[in-house]
Amino acid sequence: MVKIPKSHPRYWSLYYREKIIEGMEKGMTAKAGLIAHGRGEAFDYLIGERTIEAAERAMKAAVAKLLLAKHPVISVNGNVAALVPKETIELAKALNAKLEINLFYRTEERVKTIAEELRKYDPEIELLGINPTKRIPGLEHERGKVDENGIWKADVVVVPLEDGDRTEALVNMGKFVITVDLNPLSRSARMADITIVDNIVRAYPRMTELAREMKDYSRDELMKIIEDYDNGKTLSDVLIHIRDRLTKLAEGGIWRKKTLE
Predict the structure, then answer these.
(1) How would you write the pLDDT of the chain (261 residues) with one tens digit per residue?
(2) Distance (Å, rounded) from C-alpha 66 to C-alpha 80?
(3) Which of 10, 25, 130, 189 is 20 to 30 Å from 107 by CA-CA measure?
(4) Could you give the CA distance from residue 214 to residue 228 in angstroms, rounded to a whole number?
(5) CA-CA distance, 240 to 178, in Å (whole number)?
(6) C-alpha span between 240 and 113 (Å, rounded)
């Protein structure tokens, strides 16, 4: 991994880019994952590279739903394993959720490498999806393969950095789907029951904090949070935030002024 000085004004952005590259070099992240990361980073610029109120609201509703779930499952792909392996495990433990490796460009070697990466942070962690025996109806590609005791059985599924077709297929199966997606216009964002428009490197730690804070909430309190949540409004609020932010930036003159001599 390229050493980046912390004094660099874009340190964290460059750091996570390098993590994705490192993930590809290890065999966890597919080449297409680099493209997906860059697309997400562009939307992160638009929202201001911070967790906005709409994302916070979505995270709270997501955590409430996961705490009430009977069989919650968090899906892990190559980008997730490269960016937030430790944070994913911490979130799963806080929610008492299972982890399942699920890949679009699936090979047994990639599955093994991702499992090894996650087990660096918890050698005893249970990982599903190693030998999937079920298939999501209507999905012919490798991402359709799921674990009988994981996504197949789940009532609530977290599918971060996701493909829209699987999100739609899971919804059609009757699953409650939560996604983390920086692109509020994607099919995943529009098809999911709860969409967290935030960078996963910020979202997962915050969701873990919320899970620890909310674990003692009553069932009625958690249900009220879910009932009050509107995913359509959340996505609209994100777009309004982007519009207003860009308008202010344009009106304020974000470009460096050059003196003509």
Answers:
(1) 667 777 877 878 888 888 888 888 998 888 888 888 888 899 999 999 999 999 999 999 999 999 999 999 999 999 999 999 999 999 999 999 999 999 888 889 999 999 999 999 999 999 999 999 999 988 777 778 899 999 999 999 999 987 778 898 999 999 999 999 999 999 999 999 999 999 999 999 999 999 999 999 999 999 999 999 999 999 999 999 999 999 999 887 666 655 544
(2) 19
(3) 189
(4) 16
(5) 22
(6) 40
